[in-house]
C-alpha cells in the first residue's frame, strides 16, 4: 500500500470507477431476516465442533476476515495491526469469555459492520481500473514539464546517481491522479515498471543526469509503462481522508453525545478500590472514543500520532497519577480540544492506494453469505 499525507485534492472522477461507501453493508445489517440468515450461516461455518458456541480458536478466522475487510495486513505482519486484531477478538470475548454464543456473535458483528459502514460512508474507497490512458494524458499534457521538474528537484541526485535511479524514484512520486498505480507494489514494479525499463533504449547507457535529459527520458519510459498498463490493467483501491478537527468539534459541541461516548469508553477502564483511574489510561480512552471524533486509531496515521504525542507531552497527560472519574473526563476533553485546534490550524490529508490482486468480493469472506 502507498500512503501519503498531503493537502491534495480528491482523485479525479472516471467513468469506470467503483465507489465503496458502506451502503451495501448497512442494507444487510438493517434487514433483520437477511442479517439473521447471514449470521446463522457464518456461525455454523465457524462452529467446527458443533457445540453451539464459538471458542477463541474458532473465532480467529472471523477476526482475520474482519481485518481483511478493514484493509489490515495479515496477522503477524506488524505490532500495530496485531493490536487491532486483538482488540477485535476482545470485542467478542470481552477479554474474559472462553466461549461466545450466537447472540453475542450477532451483536458484536453487527456493531463492527455498522462501524465499518460508517467509516466507508465518511471515507469511501474508490476502485479504479488503471490502463495507461491517464498516464499518457499526463505525459503529453501541459503540466508535465513543471510537475516532473519539481519531482526531479525533490528527489535530488548525487554525483554517483544514475538516470535509471532518478527515473525509478520519480515513478514512486506519481499517483493515481497521474494514472500511475503504486510502484511500491512488487507486482507493479516487476511487471509494469521494470518491464518498461528493459525495453527502454537508455537502459544500459551511462546518460548524464540533468533536468532536460531526465524530462525527455522519463517520458519515453512512461510511454512504455502506459503500454504495459494497456496490456495488463491494474485495479487500485484508493481512499482519501482529511483530518481537520471537525469531527472532534461536533462531539464537543454535543454534551449528551460527549458524555455518552466517555461513559461507554470508561466502562472498560480499570479503577482502583476508591474508583480512581490512572491518567496513563488516557491514551486508551482516546483510542476508544476515536470513532466518535473522526480520528483514526492510534498507530494508523503517523502524522496524527505525532500530534497526539505532542499534546500528551505538553499537558503531562502521560503521568501515572490516579484521578477521579470526573477529572479523568475533564483531562480527556481538554486533550480532544487541543488536538482539534491543531488540526483546524493544520489539517492533515491522508491518501492511500493499494493494488487489488484478486476480485474484491473474494478478498474477505466476512460479507460472503
From TrEMBL:
Source organism superkingdom: Eukaryota
Record flagged with keyword Lipoprotein: no
Domain EF-hand: 34-69
Alphabetical keyword list: Calcium
Keyword Calcium: yes
Gene3D superfamilies: EF-hand
Annotated PANTHER family: CALCIUM-BINDING EF-HAND FAMILY PROTEIN, CALCIUM-BINDING EF-HAND FAMILY PROTEIN-RELATED
Name used for this protein in its record: EF-hand domain-containing protein
Record organism: Hibiscus sabdariffa (roselle)
Amino acid at each position: 500500500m502507498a500512503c501519503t499525507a498531503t493537502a491534495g485534492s480528491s482523485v479525479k472522477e472516471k467513468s469506470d470507477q467503483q465507489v465503496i461507501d458502506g451502503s451495501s453493508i448497512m442494507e444487510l445489517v438493517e434487514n433483520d431476516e437477511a442479517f439473521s440468515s447471514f449470521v446463522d450461516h457464518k456461525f455454523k461455518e465457524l462452529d467446527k465442533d458443533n457445540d453451539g458456541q464459538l471458542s477463541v480458536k474458532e473465532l480467529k478466522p472471523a477476526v482475520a476476515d474482519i481485518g481483511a475487510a478493514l484493509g489490515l495486513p495479515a496477522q503477524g505482519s506488524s505490532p500495530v495491526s496485531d493490536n487491532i486484531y486483538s482488540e477485535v477478538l476482545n470485542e467478542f470475548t470481552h477479554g474474559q469469555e472462553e466461549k461466545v454464543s450466537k447472540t453475542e456473535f450477532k451483536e458484536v458483528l453487527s456493531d463492527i459492520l455498522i462501524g465499518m459502514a460508517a467509516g466507508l460512508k465518511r471515507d469511501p474507497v474508490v476502485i479504479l481500473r488503471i490502463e495507461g490512458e491517464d498516464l499518457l494524458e499526463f505525459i503529453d499534457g501541459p503540466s508535465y514539464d513543471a510537475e516532473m521538474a519539481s519531482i526531479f528537484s525533490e528527489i535530488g541526485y548525487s554525483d554517483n546517481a544514475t538516470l535509471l535511479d532518478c527515473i525509478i524514484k520519480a515513478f514512486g512520486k506519481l499517483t493515481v491522479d497521474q494514472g500511475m498505480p503504486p510502484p511500491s507494489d512488487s507486482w507493479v514494479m516487476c511487471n509494469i515498471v521494470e518491464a518498461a525499463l528493459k525495453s527502454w533504449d537508455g537502459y544500459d547507457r551511462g546518460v548524464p543526469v540533468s533536468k532536460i535529459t531526465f524530462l525527455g527520458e522519463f517520458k519515453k519510459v512512461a510511454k512504455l509503462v502506459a503500454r504495459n498498463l494497456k496490456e495488463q490493467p491494474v485495479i487500485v483501491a484508493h481512499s482519501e481522508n482529511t483530518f481537520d478537527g471537525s469531527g472532534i468539534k461536533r462531539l464537543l459541541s454535543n454534551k449528551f453525545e460527549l458524555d455518552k461516548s466517555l461513559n461507554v469508553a470508561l466502562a472498560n477502564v480499570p479503577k482502583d478500590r476508591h474508583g480512581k483511574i490512572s491518567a496513563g489510561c488516557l491514551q486508551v480512552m482516546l483510542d476508544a472514543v476515536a470513532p466518535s471524533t473522526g480520528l483514526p486509531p492510534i498507530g494508523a496515521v503517523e502524522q496524527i500520532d505525532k500530534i497526539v504525542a505532542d499534546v500528551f507531552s505538553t499537558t503531562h497527560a502521560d503521568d501515572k497519577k490516579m484521578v477521579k472519574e470526573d477529572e479523568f473526563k475533564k483531562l480527556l476533553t481538554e486533550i480532544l480540544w487541543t488536538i482539534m485546534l491543531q488540526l483546524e490550524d493544520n489539517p492533515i490529508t491522508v491518501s492511500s492506494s493499494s493494488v487489488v490482486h484478486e476480485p474484491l468480493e473474494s478478498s474477505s469472506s466476512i460479507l460472503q453469505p
